[in-house]
Amino acid sequence: MIVYNFLFFGLNYYLMNFHNSKMDIGYKVDENRYHRFDEKNHMIYRRLWDKSLSTYKQMFDKNIKDHINSSKEGYTRLDFAFVKAGWTVYEKFPFAFAWEDDSTNNQDYGTDWLKKKHKIKHIESFTNKIKLIAKSYGASLVGIANVNNKWIYKTGFVRPRFVSEDKAKEEIRMGKLDDSSLEHPIEIPKEFNKVIVMAIEMDAKAIATAPAQPAAAAASIAYSKMAFSIACMGEFIRNLGYKAIQCGNDTALSVPLAIEAGLGALGRIGILITPEFGPRVRLCKVFTNIPLKSDEPDYGFIDKVKNTCQSCYECADACENDAISTLPDPKMKRSSISNNPGVKKYYVNVEKCFEFWIKNSSDCGACIAACPFSRIKNHIEPSKFWKL
Q: Which residues share a beta bridge with 205?
């Protein structure tokens, strides 16, 4: 079902977001313990093979009929239809996550776009143009980072070429899991030395209804915007004669790349917090070999988030399943195999988080709504949302 992808990509944030830098920005990586992540350990895949889980073989469809029949505000057929429709572009557009052009002759507009590279005279000026273009394609925020192989998945699911998301993962979503399909080695060619990281804002009023379904719709709509944005950006880069790999949260960890690209910080909530929108964003990225100037992490904001999270427990208090850490300080010890070891941070109990998602028949978002950086003052009842 379509909502599967939100779980896969949304929960990816909760599982493994972390960062390493030469400067002390509040948490560290133990290089002796850290290793690249195997995607099969994501909760969305673990629920298919890990019999120790209470959510083994379960997905959103378990409770969705009961929700709809209950006529509870925020869980009606209208609400779930709103969420499902939001995924349309993300799910149905086969070019969204392409690693190359799908044209055989590249002769659009009578021009062979790949024959000759566009000459870039001033990298800094050109980088500013790239950011302007990214925002024109729908990005709310955009930054540039060097490609750090540490954040690339070690193994994972690889989509067939030019196949839509729903078709590529059809059998997996039906519970027909072939272990080998999750264990493909993931390698980004060395020539791809830059990554353009884009953040898509989620609607504040919809998120304010969390954990009701309008909040889930805010996420699904953001993912379809994400698919559009990276597809356009990737094709733009190819039209200049360079290469591009378009990614959602697949292929590599989005949050550490976003932090290195200067978009925000990691805190207690376990996802990226931005100065502009707090954690109300979804992330996507385009790996490329086009010459660009990389941004620096926003160290001032990182320190601000670090200091705030040490005394703020709003996200933890909002979590109905107690999945968010209430420890005063980040730790190095992970809480499950769905977290990478050797990272000093606030670890989220992803098993508990996923249990609530199954109960809720979608993602949650309550922690996002509660975070003071989201600038959401009050919870909104779903009925009020539909009247806004």
A: none
pLDDT at 86 over 70: yes
216, part of any domain = yes
Token pair in block for residue 260: 């290195």
Residue 272, amino acid: L
Element (H, E) at 74: none
- Please write the tens of the pLDDT for every residue from 24-76: 444 578 888 888 888 888 888 888 889 999 999 888 889 999 999 998 999 99
Is 360 part of a structural domain of the chain? yes
What's the chain's average pLDDT? 88
Amino acid at 384: K
**Greatest CA separation for the chain:** 62
DSSP string, 225-291: HHHHHHHHHHHHHHHTT--EEEESSSSB-HHHHHHHTTS-EE-TTSSEEBTTTBT-EEEEEEEE-S-
Residue 39 lies in a domain: no
* pTM for the whole structure: 0.90
pLDDT at 351 over 80: yes
Under a CB-based contact definition with an 8 Å cutoff, are residues 201 and 281 in contact?
yes
- E strand or H helix at 142: strand 141-146
Give a yes or no: residue 163 inside a domain: no
pLDDT tens for 304-322 read 999 999 999 999 999 999 9
For the chain, the domain total comes to 1
Q: Give the integer Cα–Cα distance in Å for 97 and 284.
A: 10
| Domain with 317 in it | 9-33+67-79+92-102+113-144+189-385
